[in-house]
């Protein structure tokens, strides 16, 4: 039970958005009942005063969040980040979105190799990117640059970015290759 709870916690952390019990069951190759039991264990273990996180449960989904009593610290961090210049990680995330939009957070995370939740939140607050539901998968958001970003950069279209076609095509080719490899692996696992 403990190990499955840790796996669920890791999946929720890296995903950064709610995951359904059915999706968690599929990812862990466990039953939904086992997921629910482990979620109950995880809820209890996160109630410990040494944890800054807690688990939100809504209908058939779970989401990892910070405890409300730490909100002032988080607000200070966000304000400080918002008032400072964009970090290299934020610029990297913004570049990926600009050249590959619309793009999901999972794809951004995969390209960067790290969780991008905080960077995306910062860029959303600054109004440099927007998000919209993916028409193919309602539980996924797609990120794209905003008109404010275009105005800030002094360009009239995202295609006016330096070497847009070159890098856009290069990254799209990379994405397609990765998606093909994932599909092959998925078919092999079935």
Automatic annotation (TrEMBL):
- The name on file for this protein is SMC-Scp complex subunit ScpB
Organism, per UniProt? Candidatus Liptonbacteria bacterium RIFOXYB1_FULL_36_10
One Pfam family name is SMC_ScpB
Alphabetically ordered keywords of this record:
Cell cycle, Cell division, Chromosome partition, Cytoplasm
The residues the entry assigns to the signal sequence are: none
**GO biological process: one example:** cell division
Taxon lineage = Bacteria, Candidatus Liptoniibacteriota
Determine if Cell cycle is one of this entry's keywords: yes
Keyword Nucleus on entry: no
SUPFAM superfamilies in the record? Winged helix' DNA-binding domain
> What domain of life?
Bacteria
């Amino acid at each position: 039970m403990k190990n499955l709870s840790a796996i669920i916690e890791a999946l929720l952390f890296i995903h950064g958005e709610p995951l359904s019990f059915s999706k968690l069951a599929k990812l862990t190759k466990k039953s939904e009942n086992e997921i629910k039991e482990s979620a109950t264990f995880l809820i209890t273990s996160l109630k410990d005063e040494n944890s800054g996180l807690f688990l939100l449960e809504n209908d058939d989904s779970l989401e990892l969040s910070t405890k409300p009593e730490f909100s002032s610290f988080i607000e200070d961090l966000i304000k400080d980040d918002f008032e400072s210049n964009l970090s290299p990680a934020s610029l990297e995330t913004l570049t990926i979105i600009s050249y590959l939009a619309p793009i999901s957070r999972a794809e951004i995370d995969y390209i960067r190799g790290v969780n991008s939740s905080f960077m995306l939140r910062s860029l959303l607050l600054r109004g440099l990117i927007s998000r919209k539901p993916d028409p193919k998968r309602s539980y996924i958001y797609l990120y794209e640059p905003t008109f404010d970003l275009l105005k800030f950069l002094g360009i009239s279209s995202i295609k006016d970015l330096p070497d847009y076609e070159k890098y856009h095509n290069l990254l799209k080719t990379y994405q397609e290759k990765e998606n093909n490899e994932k599909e092959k692996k998925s078919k092999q696992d079935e």
